[in-house]
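step 3/5: co-fold with alpha-D-glucopyranose
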Amino acid sequence: MYKFSNILFLIAFLQLSSCSQKALTDKVNNKDSRVDKLLESMTLNEKIGQMNQYNGFYDATGPAPTGGDAKMKYEHLRNGMVGSVLNVTGADAVRKLQETVVNESRLGIPLIFGLDVIHGHKTLAPIPLAEAASWDLEAIEKASRVAAIEASARGINWTFAPMVDISRDARWGRVMEGAGEDAYLGSKVGAARVKGFQGNNLSDINTIAACAKHFAGYGFAESGKDYNTAEISMTTLYNVVLPPFKACVDAGICTFMNSFNTVNGIPSTADKFLQRDVLKGKWGFEGFIVSDWGSGAEMIEHGVAKDKKDVAIIATNAGSDMDMESYANVNFLQAAVEEGSVPMKYIDDSARRILKVKEDLGLLDDPYKYCNGTREKELLYHPDHRAAVLDIAKKSIVLLKNENNALPISKTQKRLAVIGTLAQDKNSPLGNWRMGSDDDTAVSVLEGLDNMGIEYTYAEGTKLSIGENAFIREMKINETDRSQFDEAIELAKKSEQVLMVLGEYGYQSGEGRSRAKLGLPGLQQELLEAVYEVNPNVVLVLMTGRPLVLNWADENVPAILNTWHLGTESGNAIAEVLVGNYNPSGKLPMCFPRSVGQLPIYYNHLNTGRPGPKDLVFWSHYTDEKNSPLYPFGYGLSYTSFDYKDISVSNTYGTDDNVKVSVTLSNTGKLKGKEVAQLYLRDRVASVSRPVRELKGFKLVELNAGESRVVEFILTKDELGFYNNNGDYVIEKGDFDVYVGGSSNANMRKSFDLK
Ligand code: GLC
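step 4/5: write tokens
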């Protein structure tokens, strides 16, 4: 503890700290004035301290820091040089660190504790890409609500989510973390997740600050290789990359995270255009921006900063407010300000933004409000949470193929085989991003079948990975050990039906997990073909964090059920769909390619000057592959069938600025089912080339067998326009086509002239 040798100094210290404590604890009508008062009492270094975030003393979610260590970090905590800590969880651990700062630093400004609560904390929802496949915004919001309740019970008051990076390239491992290839769906999902995390009042005990990431363009990493350069045109930046981030701002998000990649050769942490001109300027964002892990220091690798002082100067001048694990702000910003390289107004602005979020969270009133240990016991794995994640898990499952009614399976069949190591796996369904969760807490497929009372015989068939797996380690995939094949093949021979649970291990997608080949990993494809050869009555139950190349399965296997990585209730959700208790309703938020050579592939592409097909070779195509994906965006089957007819358009634009589209949707099958009716729009002639179609509306419609309903969509100016290359939103009159159907291949079309 501190020992004051000089009484005068002590008196001065107590006077200063008492007035600053007053600034901290003053309950004032106007929040801003408390923050402003606090700022007035802060030294330059203490303001810079708010702009510094350290990894805690637990799991690292990035490259282990080279510069800092626990002793130095504790010193900085004690002298008010840390504004936030990440990766510390648990009410007790958080309280201990908070006490250090509140009791020992001069002003006692509490820390904000961040964590990657990406799709749940202890009770895990499906990975975000799977959640997006539900298209159910209420269920998505509810899953984020559950995540916020559990995280806040463990001292966390800030999550680094939602990730709203649009991506068109399944080679990129982080597609699992987003909402897929479409900006409209990505925007709706992002806003729903912000509302789930932040609720209606950030100071509520069970709400946490959300963080839109990674700003911007990270999902366009060239060749799908993580951290790679992103080459993005202005029309794509404005119409695809930025809208989901803007939707998060409109939903009231209070933090952003910038990204590792460059756009136009500028690393996002150094990008003034993105951070100051667009986000804080044009969009009026009042929260703060945290860098990604070490992305500040990585400017040196990018070649835009010569040393860490340069990093601190460039990042701060560009609008990056808080430095995650680069040790740049804390060590070099004071000198930078004193020499005039960084204006004091930027330091004041960053510190104010950060203090404001702490104020809104209620941390300035009560630094320990999130440290009530009894809430952990009451809330973690609460039955209501399990019910919520089970609900969205069922809704996230996408039926890709179902011939000869292979599905649903009979509940009473006596000779059901289940083959595949993922069938028993209680970790993979939890996905890659599960910081702070507990291992082996997913309901496996086998357990789900057991809970459903289904009799089966199991054979592992083949190991998928070799040795221990960990979030930060490369996985070793089994490419040689076929010793379990024979047992699986013998089982298949004597079985009536075979469920093959194959796909990706949980850590095969996520950060740092780009793949250049997208088939079933390891020996699984070989095993699938060997089993199919002796018993073709196979159902492929796919587990994956991304779209895979499934051509062989699509050509041969009667049924394919895409179950992604569905979180804690995975096995129960899969079993409910397998036996028909839940009629699958999921639709792909990202298309499945026929081959890696097609990537990046997406439905809302431009027409090009040479669309096809044409008799001669001179059109935009491959000589050895189709242009279309194997399964398109928005695609998903049901155990029943749906039909669309009688599309009509009423164009009252210019009076009430609306275009109303209606269609009659019918359930033409024998079972009740839910359809995601989708509306796509094409602006046929505009000042820039516009996509051949874009999602501009969707409705979840549940119909009984034989039931029909008129479904209406309203197109407002928010849907009819686009951003031109100056970033201005424009609506240009002229001919439009509207398509309605059950996927991006919808062919029911109606044209109208926007006057
Ligand atoms: C990681 C990720 C980012 C995450 C951060 C903190 O490198 O890029 O999404 O929020 O570091 O864990």
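step 5/5: annotate
The CA atoms of residues 413 and 437 lie 37 Å apart.
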